[in-house]
Write a structure and sequence with these properties.
The chain is α+β, with helices and mostly antiparallel strands. The protein has a single domain, classed as Winged helix-like DNA-binding domain superfamily/Winged helix DNA-binding domain (Arc Repressor Mutant, subunit A), CATH 1.10.10.10. Helix content is 51%, strand content 17%.
């Protein structure tokens, strides 16, 4: 197994380490939890992961930004769902490649 791939999703696919692509540890943890356990509210995620709900909301904001999660209405509750890795990983990989090129340019390397 590659060092960039850790764990398996509920559908049997692999879950990459999202930190490798510039996301926070909390975003990686929240995505992994949603991917493995299914749809959850921010409050349920916070309790399950034993982190603050504000940390979960910040992580969800990161995940929304890269299209890794989607929100579902369930009456008055908002549930969060992990999207399949294949739908957002190419965008993260390209974003990380652009950042790497910019870093090399600023450091004076080709």
């Amino acid at each position: 197994m590659s060092s960039s791939v850790v764990g398996a999703s509920a559908d049997g696919g692999t879950v990459p380490q999202l930190t490798r692509y510039g996301l926070s540890v909390d975003a990686d943890l929240v995505y992994r939890c949603l991917s493995l356990a299914g749809d959850q509210t921010a409050g349920t995620l916070a309790r399950s992961l034993r982190i603050g709900v504000h940390q979960v909301r910040d992580a969800l904001a990161e995940l929304i930004d890269c299209s890794a999660v989607s929100a579902l209405a369930d009456g008055r509750r908002r549930l969060w769902r992990a999207r399949p890795v294949a739908t957002f990983l190419p965008q993260l990989q390209e974003r990380q490649a652009q950042l790497d090129r910019a870093r090399r340019y600023l450091q004076g390397s080709p």
